[in-house]
Design a protein that fits this description.
The chain has 155 residues and is mainly alpha-helical. It has a single domain, classed as Four Helix Bundle (Hemerythrin (Met), subunit A). Helices cover 79% and strands 0% of the residues. The protein contains 5 helices and no strands. It binds fe (ii) ion (FE2).
């Protein structure tokens, strides 16, 4: 299993979701509310799956030269997910005009996460993670869930 390639593919899916969100928010059309909400939910759920897959790959016991940095990236994703929870709980329609700025901020954080992992963290690993079969199956399940979310969000 080429886990890192799969995780990079996840990152591309999230970028697609973020691009679609930005397009919808810049249109500022009332009819965009429902689609924005759907995309935000897909993003939140997808990030939870991605985080779970990363935790399995880089979790306790696995050696990595940048363990601290990996942990920080993981915590950063938790904060983004909390911010998405907040937006969704406050109501997309009610806060539509303020969403643009908030989403822009989250967008920057996520893209930074993708770049940092792909360019700095993962190359520092000696080889692609070789996982026990059960863990690999679990990681694959998370990755399939993200691909499904993308289809459901119709991006
Ligand atoms: Fe990631």
């Amino acid at each position: 299993m080429r886990a890192l390639a799969e995780l990079s593919a996840d990152h591309r899916i999230f970028e697609g979701l973020l691009d679609a969100l930005e397009r919808l928010l810049s249109d500022e059309e009332e009819s965009a509310h429902a689609r924005v909400e759907r995309l935000l939910k897909a993003l939140r759920q997808g990030l939870a799956e991605h985080q779970a897959a990363e935790a399995l790959l880089f979790g306790s016991g696995r050696k990595h030269p940048s363990k601290g940095a990996l942990k920080r990236e993981h915590e950063d994703l938790s904060e983004v997910r909390e911010a998405l929870d907040f937006i969704l709980e406050s109501g997309v329609e009610e806060n539509f005009s303020a969403l643009k700025e908030t989403v822009k901020h989250l967008d920057e954080r996520l893209r930074r996460h993708f770049k940092f992992e792909e360019e700095a963290l993962w190359p520092a690993m000696k080889s692609d993670a070789k996982l026990p079969r059960k863990t690999a199956a679990e990681v694959a399940r998370h990755i399939r869930a993200i691909a499904r979310l993308k289809e459901e969000a119709a991006v």
